[in-house]
Amino acid sequence: MGKRLARGSKKLSATEVKAIVRPGRHADGGGLYLNVSASGTKSWVYLFMKNRVRREMGLGAYPAVSLAAAREKAESARAVVAAGEDPFALRRQEAPKTFAEAAEAFIGSMEKGWRNDKHVAQWRMTLGPTYCKDIQNRPVSEVSTDDVLAVLSPIWTTKVETASRVRGRIERVLEYAKVKGWRTGDNPALWRGHLRGALPPRKKLQRGHHAAMPYSDVPQFVGRLTSADAMAARALEFLILTAARSGEVINARWSEIKLKEGVWIVPKERMKAGVEHRVPLPERAIAILTALHDTRLNEFVFPGEKKDRPLSPMALTMLMRRMDAGHFTPHGFRSSFRDWAGDATSFPREIAEAALAHKVGDETERAYRRSDALARRRKMMGAWAAFCTRKNVGKKSPQ
Predict the structure, then answer these.
(1) Core-most of 42, 183, 203, 275, by most CB within 10 Å?
(2) Neighbouring C-beta atoms of residue 194, cutoff 10 Å
(3) Please, is 192 exposed, middle or buried when counting C-beta atoms within 10 Å of its C-beta (0-12, 13-18, 19+)?
(4) What percent of the chain has pLDDT over 90?
(5) Which of 24-38, 183-197, 278-292, 364-378 is predicted with the least confidence, judged by mean pLDDT?
């Protein structure tokens, strides 16, 4: 915890609030403090005395609550304290009564900054009845360690990644509830120094590793896709040929496609790394797009059944299940491509990584590598498409 500013210090300015990074409480006067956590998140707290006991009331997170707004909230709380009342009484009247309501309030406050609708849906699902049924209707102020353990214990050793996500998301909701003044005390979903002593050791998480089809089997699978007459089949074939992520393909828009140049430009807002990504399109990918362009229904390259909406995020997965390939995942084809590039070609590692929109090297190295190597990646993606469509199979691809 950083050193706190003295009570007699001058008031904070909006510029200072934005610039402060040192963890600790930074006084604005009259009991109002800007609290900076070790992770860098900022929130407002009001400290006051009630029955000779010092109490702390959260006034909201910064920058959602500005300096001016925090001062207004603190002034209202001071007036209540001066009248001999408890400011928490007013806050309780506005507080969500259940964990479910607090979770929805948290998601609502964050979803504009999250990547896509699928991410929001995943949060709602993991915090909903599927896993958190036992605490849905419990007052958020009363959620305890035993409650969190009741949620996690049934899935802790059987659904390792899911259990880890559920725990982390419950922790975020309860942290949010405390900032909003809806609960007090320690966070019962904390891992270090808390739940780690109450749950058995976890199996090693397999983050980022999706079941991938061996690249030697991809040409036969692509052949089956080519003969399938379904929008999901076209989308999955396009995904394989471009080594793109499912969300990038599903949400692809015609405004991003440059057919004459043979390039698909994925905007930074839809990229995992937040950086625009240019994808060179091999001939088969262009053929898919050309056919779809002639019969396009809306702005999405791969439209779904609902008006003005793309394919469902589950469409590709369900297609693979129907094709008896459900033990693999659409995302896994990125690994298939990477294994092919490393094992069966002489293309440099950094070119293969660039095709996957992965960061290569440290910041200094990336600063000197300004080009995205589009020409060399075009050659590589052409070789990959030729392999997938059973052309030149078995030959060593050129650099």
Answers:
(1) 183
(2) 16
(3) exposed
(4) 45
(5) 364-378
44: left (phi over 0), alpha (psi -120 to 50) or beta: beta
The tokens describing 4, both together, are: 């706190």
Helix pair 332-344, 231-242: axis angle to 10 deg? 40
Instruction: Say which residue, 244 or 57, is predicted with more confidence.
Output: 244
Identity (one letter) of the amino acid at 249?
Answer: V
Instruction: Give the Å distances, CA to CA, from 375 to 276, 344, 355, 380.
Output: 17, 20, 11, 9
Is the distance from CB of 244 to CB of 301 less than 8 angstroms? no
The token pair that represents 3 in the structure block: 């050193």
Closest CA to 155 of 188, 175, 130: 130
Q: How many CB atoms lie within 10 A of CB 76?
A: 14
Question: Under a CB-based contact definition with an 8 Å cutoff, are residues 330 and 317 in contact?
Answer: yes
pLDDT above 70 for 227? yes
Whether the CB-CB separation of 397 and 377 falls below 8 Å is answered with: no
Q: How confident is the model at residue 93 (pLDDT cuts 50, 70, 90)?
A: low
Please tell me the number of Cα atoms within 13 Å of 297 on its side-chain side: 11
Those residues whose C-beta lies under 8 Å from the C-beta of residue 147, and which sit 6 or more positions away, are 134, 135, 138, 188
pLDDT in tens, 207-225: 445 678 999 999 999 999 9
State both tokens at 187.
């966070």
